[in-house]
Amino acid sequence: MRTIDDLEVSGRRVLVRADLNVPIGGNGIRDDGKIRACLPTLTALLERGAAVVVCSHLGRPAGVPDPACTLAPVAARLSELLGRPVPLAADTVGPSARAAVAGLRPGGVVMLENLRFNPGETSKDDGVRGAFADALASLADLYVGDGFGAMHRRHASVSDVAARLPHAAGYLVQAETAALERLTGDVERPYIVVLGGAKVADKLPVVGGLLGRADQILIGGGMAFTFLAAQGHGVGLSLLEGDLDVARDYLVRGARCGVALVVAPDVVVAPGRDAAQGEAVPSAAIPADRMGLDIGPQSARLFAAKLATAKTIFWNGPMGVFEMPGFAAGTRAVAQALADSGAFTVIGGGDTAAAVRTLGFPDDAFGHVSTGGGASLEYLEGKTLPGLAALQADDTPTGTPAAAAGRPA
What is the number of other CB atoms lying within 10 angstroms of the CB of residue 323? Predict the structure, then answer.
């Protein structure tokens, strides 16, 4: 992939696809890690005299404007971090966006409203998606893909615009791929993977891909209950997702190929998520009227001891409901074990990155904190990420010519 260092950007409009899908609550942005992660690319482009048009998605607004998913708080925070105004267009490619871009000067930056307010962004119809990509491409001279967290999506702004403009990867995508290549190439061993969190059905396939690569896979969080059920244990009211037959197959395959799948031996249970705290019980004896909300102290000690022996560690998925103090101990113990290890450590984005920051761990306590949970998992699984493939392709533009598309003068 070419990088932004290979582009002549001075005096040119550059469309930057960032991943600014940050968690927002009643008090505003809960974790601005993804915003901070895009700063090196944006700063470099602005300092070199580019006029920067930032675009991103936020949440799942289903193709229509939704005030709950506006990028206004993100634009405000980005303005603070960059130390310059970041006006937000009121639409994606409509009159407001085109007027904002038309008035943009070198060294300036504007942000388009949430891309998913337009149905073309996520459409499975190539024509609909392509038309939206044409409209986005007409706003700029160059395209920079820097939203690693969206690289596994075949969306207009991720995989289609690059075919319409000369393109390059941003610094964040460079850093992400360099870190993940260390987990897929000549890995320094022992290599231990920690998996947890929810969205188990999405994460199960990566276990199969890791059986031939990792030395041990430690399983906690919501994923543990799928494997416990696959072993024939009751899980009470705990989260239970994914195909149990697939989990059983992984347990058998792991035993055959010598990769230990270590399921948390104890869990902290409570009547429900609104409980202030719970009690630790053996994972094989979860009461029918209780749900598991964290790994237990025995699991935390076991996982920490194993991680202390590793040379390479990848972690995706919290060990419990870390947002609640009574169920954060397991996630904290694993984070501390990674921070204390001498291994090359990668935090697999998403909730895991938010968890370590929420619990007070600085990013530099780890080798790399990814911005892409799903993207990093699919990369490790060996899948082709549409966004990366687009950036690696020949950058001879195709599609609607700039003049026909009515690019602002």
Answer: 15
Residue 368: Cβ-neighbour burial (10 angstroms; 0-12, 13-18, 19+): buried
For the chain, give me the number of helices (H) and strands (E)?
15, 16
Residue with structure tokens 């360099």? 178
Q: What's the CA gap between 64 and 67, in Å, rounded?
A: 10
Give the pLDDT confidence of 41-63 residue by residue, as tens digits: 999 999 999 999 999 999 999 99
Do residues 390 and 159 touch, judged by C-beta distance below 8 A?
yes
Measured between alpha carbons, how far is 136 from 399 in angstroms, rounded to an integer? 12
**Residue 296 contacts by C-beta under 8 Å, 6 or more apart in sequence?**
264, 265, 266, 267, 268, 280, 281, 283, 330
Q: How many residues does the chain have?
A: 409
d(CA 280, CA 326): 12
Whether 279 has a pLDDT exceeding 50, the answer reads yes
What is the C-alpha to C-alpha distance for residues 121 and 139, in angstroms, rounded to an integer?
15
Compute the radius of gyration of the chain from its Cα atoms: 22
Question: Contact 293/278 with Cβ under 8 angstroms?
Answer: yes
Nearest-angstrom CA–CA distance, 89 and 290:
48
Which two three-digit tokens encode residue 127? 């024509």
395 — pLDDT class (breaks 50, 70, 90): low
Paired tokens of 134: 């044409």
pLDDT tens-digit readout, 214-239: 999 999 999 999 999 999 999 999 99
